[in-house]
Amino acid sequence: MYNVTYGDTSSSTVGYLATDTFTFGGTPVPGFVFGCSDDSVGDFSGASGVLGFNLGNLSLVSQLQLTWFSYLLASDASADAGGESDSLLQFADDGSVPPTSNHGRSTPLVTSSLYPTVYFFNLTGIRVDGQDLAIPAGTFDLLANGSGGVFPSTTVPVTYLEQAAYAVVKEAIAGSKVMPPPVNGSELGLDLCYTITSLKNVTVPKLELVFDGDGAVMTLQRYNYFFADNTTGQDCLTILPSVGGSLLGSLLQTGTSMTYDIAHEQLIFETQAAAASPANSRASLIMMMVMVMLNLAAWVLLF
């Protein structure tokens, strides 16, 4: 038997652990360990399974001894006329070079002694409209005891920043001269919200994440950190405060190719310039989050 609860604690699965021969790209893998779920909790958006890509012993990465894997979370608006998404998942175990271009930027992957199966990386700063924010030194550090740090998630849509960093980011955005007065966003469970009408002709402040590495700057699009919900008529910042660590959610990663070069212990990211912005939706915020998940046969879990 197994019992697994995922990182955001809103989804879980219970079932039996088994082994069988799985075939990947025509190559059979005997003795592959997998779970057969007979009781699942949470909205898996119709997915028929879950693929684990963390560093645990039973993950796909470990069992296939992958040297790299890459995913692109495409926006719902990028789907073609037949409803097919441009989301992409690739992986290899042959030591080949990850499929990146000269536009890709890399940052080292680091390990937490407290969470050794999770991918962490060093976020060194945040910029708003090209200006480095005065975030207290050490806010994003991965501490010697394994706490803190910054890690990604493909199942948690909203991004969480350490309280000290979030307060500075919120102040920089809300305090911009172009931004109208905010409104109460409690209905969506978010903190900094505006009416859709008030932001209709506003170019919100540009947000950039600065990582450890030469030129490792991730420039975000509006849809990576703002969400317009037609049901409530609100347009909200999809970033919230946290304590004990920071998490980069799936919305923030949408439209960016994320390549985990395990062999060289680095993350290579490349923003897809052609990625379309999700249109406003009448669905709830949570449903919108689900739509930007991988439209594949399974979810991809990084922790």
Structural features, described:
The chain is mainly beta. The protein has a single domain (73-293), classed as Cathepsin D, subunit A, domain 1 (Beta Barrel), CATH 2.40.70.10. The strands form seven sheets. It has a six-stranded antiparallel beta sheet, with no helix packed on it. The chain has a four-stranded antiparallel beta sheet with strand order 10-9-14-15, with helices on one face. The chain has a three-stranded antiparallel beta sheet with strand order 1-2-3, with no helix packed on it. The model is unreliable at 274-299 (pLDDT under 50). A hairpin with a 6-residue loop joins strand 1 and strand 2. The chain is globular. It has helices spanning 60-63, 163-174, 222-225, 250-253, 285-291, and strands at 2-5, 12-24, 27-41, 49-52, 68-72, 88-92, 105-110, 120-121, 123-128, 131-132, 150-152, 159-162, 193-195, 207-211, 217-219, 226-229, 234-237, 239-242, 246-248, 256-261, 266-271, 298-301. The chain has five helices and 22 strands.
